UniProtKB/TrEMBL annotation:
Superkingdom to which the source organism belongs: Eukaryota
Full protein name: DOPA 4,5-dioxygenase
Pfam families the record matches: DOPA_dioxygen
InterPro entries per the UniProt record, alphabetical: DOPA-like_sf (IPR023389), DOPA_dioxygen (IPR014980)
Length: 190
């Protein structure tokens, strides 16, 4: 698709533009896409870039089967970290009761953006069916991060998080695991 927008298509795929600014294709007339904004009009990537994420693995309380699946997934994450497959750090605490905004059993896995794609792929392909995974960015805006910026893997609907347990806007973006030098703790680049 990017090749098509840049005009690098094969001759058989190239659309013939006509004087009214439309092109004739197998799908009928199409208008030319709007040009991209000038680079100066785009937000500065360093200021607006999300550098860390949380994956919260959920299971149903008082259900030994789903808790065992969640713990097996956690163990696999630890093994893959040890093997250098990715950096995805499970918090030491495992919540076997509701904690903070999380209404059921859970644990948190911190992932810096440098390893996000591999971690997301892992969770997508390896999440056992009964488990639900909440994925959200880690910014200063806890409520928004856990609601409108959040996505779920599995589950028929979003869980009702207790957002009153969160701070609307933190004074600073939390940098977790700064000793790893990743995410918000990575060396600044231009």
């Amino acid at each position: 698709m990017l090749n098509c927008l840049r005009g690098d298509t094969h001759d058989t795929e190239r659309a013939a533009f006509v004087s009214d600014g439309t092109s004739k294709t197998a799908y009928g007339a199409m208008t030319q896409p709007e040009p991209l904004p000038a680079a100066a009009a785009l937000p500065a990537p360093i200021d607006d870039e999300i550098k860390e994420y949380h994956f919260h693995v959920y299971w149903f309380l008082n259900d030994p089967k789903t808790e065992a699946l969640a713990m097996a997934l956690r163990q696999r994450i630890l093994e893959l970290n040890d093997q250098g497959y990715f950096v995805a750090v499970p918090l030491a605490t495992v919540n076997r009761v509701p904690r903070g905004p999380h209404p059921i059993g859970s644990y948190e896995v911190w992932v810096p953006f440098e390893h996000f794609a591999r971690a997301y792929s892992f969770f997508t392909l390896n999440r056992p069916d009964p488990l639900i995974i909440l994925l959200h960015p880690l910014t200063r805006h806890e409520v928004i991060d856990h609601t409108t910026r959040a996505v779920y893997l599995g589950g028929p609907a979003a869980l009702p998080l207790k957002v009153d347990e969160l701070t609307d806007t933190l004074s600073a973006t939390p940098a977790q695991y700064p000793h790893l030098g990743l995410g918000y703790s990575a060396p600044k680049t231009l």
